[in-house]
């Protein structure tokens, strides 16, 4: 399993930074960076956040919990498009162009799509 120490070292090297340079960016010393990279010390939450923001990666990626570097924010329109695509129901697309939906709206749309799909299955 990949550790925070591994990730930090990999991120630093892939960005052509020395331990001293990264230390200055994070407001810690070279020795502290070395200890993080060797697994002898763990950065506090504030430093983890600084690292993730500087390298534009998620905390989960930094901690080795995922190989996805960062999460893309999913908009309401993205959610609806995904539901439409997965369900094969294309008529909804004409009804939401340019509109903003609340979480309740999205839930209603998802429930409707599931209702229509269940109804289709019963007919078969």
Automatic annotation (TrEMBL):
Q: What is this protein called?
A: Helix-turn-helix domain-containing protein
Q: Give the record's keywords alphabetically.
A: DNA-binding
The transmembrane segments are none
GO: which molecular function terms?
A: DNA binding
Domain HTH cro/C1-type: from-to ranges = 8-62
Q: Which SMART domains match?
A: HTH_XRE (SM00530)
Name of one Pfam family that matches? HTH_3
The record's InterPro entries line, in alphabetical order, gives: Cro/C1-type_HTH, Lambda_DNA-bd_dom_sf
């Amino acid at each position: 399993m990949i550790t925070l120490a591994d990730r930090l070292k990999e991120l630093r090297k892939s960005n052509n930074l020395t331990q001293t340079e990264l230390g200055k960016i994070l407001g810690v010393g070279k020795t502290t960076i070395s200890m993080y990279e060797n697994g002898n010390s763990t950065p506090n939450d504030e430093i983890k956040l600084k690292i993730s923001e500087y390298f534009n990666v998620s905390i989960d990626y930094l901690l080795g919990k995922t190989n996805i570097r960062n999460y893309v924010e999913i908009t309401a329109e993205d959610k609806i498009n995904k539901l439409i695509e997965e369900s094969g129901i294309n008529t909804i697309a004409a009804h939401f162009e340019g509109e903003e939906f609340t979480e309740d709206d999205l839930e209603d749309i998802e429930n409707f799509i599931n209702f229509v799909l269940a109804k289709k299955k019963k007919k078969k």
